[in-house]
Amino acid sequence: MQITCITLFPDMLDALKAGGVVSRAIERGTVHFHAINPREYTHDVHRTVDDRPYGGGPGMVMKAEPMLAAIDAAKAQHAPDSRVVVMSPQGAPFDQAKAAELARLPGLILVAGRYEGIDERVMDAGVDDELSIGDYVLSGGELAAMVVIDSVVRLLPDVLGDARSAQYDSFVDGLLDHPHYTRPEQLGEHNVPSVLLGGDHKQIERWRLQQSLGRTWLRRPDLIARRTLSDEEQTLLDEFIAQHEHDTKRVHD
Ligand code: ADE
Q: Does residue 58 carry a catalytic annotation?
């Protein structure tokens, strides 16, 4: 997959090459990554990339021409089906389903804005998608672009050590992940749940699914509301809720 980030701070993206899953994918050639600085596409002596907003107000706006020229330069180096995505708090929420969708593309051109934002005509002229990584404001789109890159690259074939890792991730199935344990078996007062030690794989699967359902119910009721549960899942969740209510009652008594 080819990934280009358009940014005024290309050095920030060097973090992707500093280690971990993405850096390995780049070294192996599974991912071809580079950054383009829109400042290289200015024509005035000051290399101006921003200007004051029409209508007044605080801050500066990123100018359209250098941005559009940088996007065109990136497109010229990309396969035709590559997608241009602007990172912005005004974008559609980025989630695991979107990551999976982007991972199927031959290329991704991610545009990171700075200042108050980018001249809206860039969005009208050269952009396919606008994505937000959450309801908070970053000082630039670079960290958001890196979040998207990390979550997309780890889904590419042969990037993770064990292909099953991505398949069992949180959110793949619309649920949070179950708890994980490794040695030692006993840590002070805290023991590893006995079902995980027994070697009964059916029971282990059942326990993990129940924990996923229970945690999602406790921490992300919005995800449970959005998902239809099978009869088996509903039974497991009811059991979890009964146990949870029993445990919390005992604490309060
Ligand atoms: N740029 C600034 N804040 C952002 C956010 N929450 N998501 C994506 N891009 C951003």
A: no
> From the candidates 24, 53, 89, 233, which is the catalytic residue?
89
Q: How far is the CA of 130 from the centre of ligand 1 (A)?
A: 10
Asked if residues 13 and 142 have their Cβ atoms less than 8 Å apart, the reply is yes
Q: How far apart are CA 8 and CA 124, in angstroms?
A: 21
83 tagged catalytic: no
Name every residue whose Cβ is closer than 8 Å to that of residue 155 and which is 6 or more positions away in sequence. Answer: 99, 100, 103, 166
Q: 3-state DSSP call for residue 32?
A: strand
What's the CA gap between 161 and 165, in Å, rounded?
A: 8
Ligand 1 shell residues, CB under 6 Å: 87-89, 132-134, 136-138, 141, 144
pTM for this prediction: 0.94
- Give the DSSP letter of residue 198: S
Please tell me the predicted confidence (pLDDT) of residue 224.
97
For residue 195, the 8-state DSSP code is G
Are 60 and 50 spatial neighbours (Cβ–Cβ below 8 Å)?
Answer: yes
Phi, psi at 236, each rounded to 5°: -60, -40
Residue 89 in 3-state DSSP? strand
Name the residue at shortest CA distance from atom 6 of ligand 1: 89
Task: Give tens-digit pLDDT for 141-174.
Answer: 999 999 999 999 999 998 998 777 787 787 879 9
Maximum C-alpha span of the chain: 74
Q: Which residues contact 11 (CB under 8 A, 6 or more apart)?
A: none
Distance from C-alpha of 40 to C-alpha of 47, rounded to nearest angstrom:
8
| Backbone torsion region of residue 213, taken as left when φ is above 0, otherwise alpha when ψ lies between -120 and 50, otherwise beta | alpha
